[in-house]
Write a structure and sequence with these properties.
The protein is built from 15 helices and no strands. The protein is an all-alpha fold. The chain has one domain. The two termini are 33 Å apart.
């Protein structure tokens, strides 16, 4: 089973879209909790049950696309990651630093390292940075080393980075093994026991929280295996189109939802502070609607520049040359259609 464009538009986007919906469903009540709201115990337990699967799935799917990206020339590879990963991280980190009180000055370097909820984008950028240097190693060496590091490092940023590096580079290794990916996506006797293990560990996690602990990685992989199988079974169903839309625009939903939810909560908390469940549903709907609108409008400048760095060479080509008095008189040059000048 090769990773074709068609398959990315279906099961991979379903998987990423569902994981992103889970992120929004958790942040809708969690963001109010950051500014004083009290969450019920059942909601905390539901989050803890999903914690081993939500972000590891997003990392795994991102890693699946790494081998195709590495086939590009080095300059094009790094410029693409600068445009589509580093740029939106910097833009939305600046907004988050201004919107929240992180305790560090705006221009202090620590304010820009794994900033708030954008740590996921920061990690992805770091993995893309080092991936070409590791491309010649056997594909399973890198995730094994990352998991070993996560097991022995002290708690902190390094543990989180190596823990999620495991899922990212496992995704890349699986992508290089079409037979293994086909086995995961089409064999029920692999997916069923993996799903049973994942559900069981999810129940355990609901009562005993395990966050970014390396020994839990096999359980997270079981959940990912079961999720891939399910996504493959429904990838051509029409009702999955909203999930595929979220998956295709996952960067927009991820970077934009947090300030949207926080801003909406500051507006409505006076009326809904006593009903966090109702407020959470309202904030979730607002986040979905606003992020969907941004995803549709991102093709138009300047909204594009919230999520993608300006293509300066293309913009410069659109600037007409200055006329000079010494220019020879002659017939006007043939006009180039405007569409040919677009990036």
């Amino acid at each position: 089973m090769q990773l074709t464009t068609d398959q990315r538009m279906h099961w991979m986007d379903i998987l990423r879209g569902f994981a992103m919906i889970l992120v929004l469903a958790w942040h809708a009540p969690a963001i109010p909790a950051l500014v004083g709201a009290e969450l019920p115990d059942w909601l905390l337990a539901a989050n803890d049950a999903l914690l081993p699967y939500r972000m590891p799935t997003l990392m795994f799917v991102s890693g699946l696309l790494l081998p195709a990206a590495l086939r590009k020339p080095a300059g094009r590879y790094y410029w693409g990651k600068l445009q589509l990963v580093v740029w939106p991280y910097l833009v939305w980190s600046a907004l988050h630093i201004l919107q929240s009180d992180s305790g560090e000055p705006f221009f202090h370097w620590r304010s820009w390292v794994a900033t708030g909820y954008l740590w996921f984008i920061f990690f992805i950028a770091c993995y893309y940075l080092v991936a070409p240097l590791l491309a010649r190693l056997p594909p399973w060496i890198v995730p094994a080393a990352a998991l070993a590091a996560a097991l022995v490092l002290p708690d902190g940023l390094a543990v989180r980075m190596t823990y999620f590096a495991f899922f990212f580079f496992v995704g890349a290794a699986v992508s290089r093994s079409p037979r293994l990916l086909g086995l995961i996506g089409s064999t029920w006797w692999v997916a069923l026991p993996a799903g049973v293990v994942a559900v069981g560990f999810g129940v355990v996690s609901a009562f005993e929280r395990h966050q970014f602990e390396a020994w839990t990685a096999p359980f997270s992989l079981c959940g990912i295996v079961a999720a891939i199988y399910c996504a493959r079974r429904i990838e051509h169903r029409r009702w999955t189109r909203p999930l595929r839309f979220v998956g295709r625009n996952s960067l927009v939903f991820y970077v934009a939802h947090f300030p949207i939810v926080l801003g909406a909560w500051l507006l409505v908390r006076g009326a809904l502070s006593d009903s966090i469940a109702v407020a959470s549903v309202l904030l979730f709907v607002i986040a979905i609607a606003a992020c969907s609108a941004l995803a549709v409008l991102q093709r138009y400048r300047p909204i594009t520049w919230l999520f993608r760095a300006p293509d300066l060479p293309a913009l410069l080509r659109r600037i007409p040359p200055r006329r000079t008095s010494a220019a020879p008189v002659g017939p006007a040059p043939e006009r180039v259609p405007e569409g040919d000048l677009l990036p």
